[in-house]
Amino acid sequence: MKLKNTLLIVISLLLLSCKSEVKKEVVVTTKKPNILIVFPDQLRRYSAGFWSEENYKKHVVGKPDPVLTPTIDKLAKNGVVFTQAVSNYPLCSPYRGMMLSGMYPEQNGIWNNCKKGREHSLKDDIATIPDLFFKAGYNTSYFGKCHWLKTEPLFDENGNYQGTTEAPGGHYVNTYDTYIPPGKRHNIEYFYQALKDEHFNPRIYSNDPSTIEGKKDGELHLPKVFSAKNEAEKIIKYLKNENGQRNADKPFCMIWSMNPPHNPWDDENTDMETLHKHYDTDKFPEIDNKLVVRKNADLKVANYARHYYANVTSADNYIGQVIDELEKMGELDNTIVMFSSDHGEMLGSHSRTGKNSFQLESLSVPFIVHWPKGLKADITDVLFGATDVLPTAMGLAGLSNQIPSEVEGTNFAELLLNPKNNSVKKPEDVLIMLGNSRGVFSGKYTLCLEENKKQWDTDKGTEISEAYLYDNINDPYQLNKIDLKALPEISNKLLKSLGEKLKMSNDPWFQQKKYSNLIPYPNS
Predict the structure, then answer these.
(1) How far is CA 453 from the centre of its chain?
(2) pTM above 0.90?
(3) Half-sphere exposure of 484 toward its Cβ, with a 13 Å CA cutoff?
(4) Alpha-carbon gap, residue 345 to 319, rounded angstroms
(5) H helices within 279-356, ranges in order?
(6) Average of pLDDT values for 327-355?
(7) What is the rounded CA–CA span in Å between residue 344 and residue 469?
(8) Which whole-number Å values give the CA distances from 66 to 57, 258, 283, 310, 414, in the listed order?
């Protein structure tokens, strides 16, 4: 009898175990994928080590930078690498407006960097990535740089948000960018914002008191820690859910916008330990063409190359810590990681620094989609822009039917899931714009039309001062501007496409039919 009872108990336990395993398996297989969008500020497309390797270097236009990025390399080799991703408007705020909303500036509200004295601001009444994923049942979070809200003097002299210009308000916390208060966060549940271009002295605001020494949302916190390191620590705590920061039964949608490798590039704003280890004079005695490899670069202008590369490698390290944590948690395979940047960095090319130009060094951005559970490693030459991030993220997450009709970007999810799928048409070119310019980028060619005004002028342009093409294949460093009349067939095709895209995006140039002697606008 005892033996029989023992056998019955064992069988019962086995059955319970099986049921538990089945239940567990169902939960895992039906769980929606997490979303993690990571974009360091001002990261060149070719500032990553994998571009120098055999499978990738044939896709490089020019030469890749001699920079160490083991995390980005890992994402690339196990994900889908876009070889032709661009920032449609290579500037911080306009990119963010397009990326968050899937819409072009006229619809999202941001035509220039948000700055003291300007009115540019992301519209409150449009749906963004956090809004849409929150509605779909996701935990939503944002870490790092925002730079999408109108900059106003709504703070006291100590940087604490007052919400009014009357005393003790009336002060700015920063010239560029500002604190995003509740009500302006587009359904971001967990908020950890970093302000100001001082990498070892970020201005922090958060709705989690435990991360800011018990302070309230809107009170300024100064951790005095390298911003990428600081944000990685907070993200890891959020992922571990140590203080119940999120509902662990839900998938998460996280956006991480780190400031490095954005300028300033000096010792005070650089991870100098990384610089000394990888980019100092023992390895690169001079700022020469071994360090600054692009043939159009002015080496004197590029004198900050060591500092730029050091912060790229440092950013890569802290991204790696977050990726490693996801792997430890068993969540990495079911997390769609989208890695990109808001724009590139000239690094001395054409004797320029920064961004805000149509040259490849400014326009070209990295874009990698890493999702081991859903995507095979691949390389694609599809032309991809900022407005495509939102619909593609939603498509991959199985939310294609919830993409708002107002979204102007393309959902490339089906193309990524099945590269042989012909239902998604690859674009022949993408719209590019600056404060005084419009154009299209086709991969092989860049069409540029520049007005007779400076980018920041409030006065409107009255004529096209310069119109030209770049042949990006035969002239990878864009050393020669080609007159449109020299290649009439190509020019006419690209000008026609420009007119169509200006209409599609409801661009002011289309609204006013500007330069219709050159741009063949379609009928309204």
Answers:
(1) 29
(2) yes
(3) 16
(4) 20
(5) 305-329
(6) 98
(7) 20
(8) 12, 22, 11, 11, 34
